[in-house]
Design a protein that fits this description.
mainly alpha, 116 residues, single chain
Length: 116
């Protein structure tokens, strides 16, 4: 179980880190959606920073489990908020995208708790 946790945690951290980078770099496939959802541009760096910190926390959590658990919970809340944002904007076609981030983070948390 521990090896599965390590593998999933690293892959999930890379996936979420890519999302953070994409927002910091203002990639169109991220920014266009945020504009459509009505997310203020003044929030974008903070949102990217939150994802980046969560991704880093998942990696550090391999060595400091409490931090990994906190990071996973924070990311789960973040992506639940992203799902709610897509639903509020009635952008049902894009609702699966934050779920694609939410699920691996939840699996990472479950594996970490099982490995402890």
């Amino acid at each position: 179980m521990t090896i599965a946790y390590y593998v999933v945690a690293v892959i999930t951290a890379l996936w979420v880190g890519f999302s953070s980078y994409s927002l910091f770099a203002r990639k169109a496939f991220v920014v266009d959606s945020l504009v459509d959802y009505g997310v203020p541009q003044s929030w974008w760096n903070w949102l990217a920073l939150a994802k980046g910190a969560g991704a880093l926390g998942l990696i550090v959590g391999i060595f400091l489990p409490a931090l990994g658990i906190a990071a996973a919970i924070g990311l789960i809340l973040y992506f639940l908020g992203a799902v709610a944002t897509t639903l509020r904007a009635r952008s049902y076609k894009t609702t699966p995208y934050p779920v694609l981030y939410l699920l691996p983070v939840a699996v990472t948390l479950i594996l970490q708790l099982a490995a402890a």
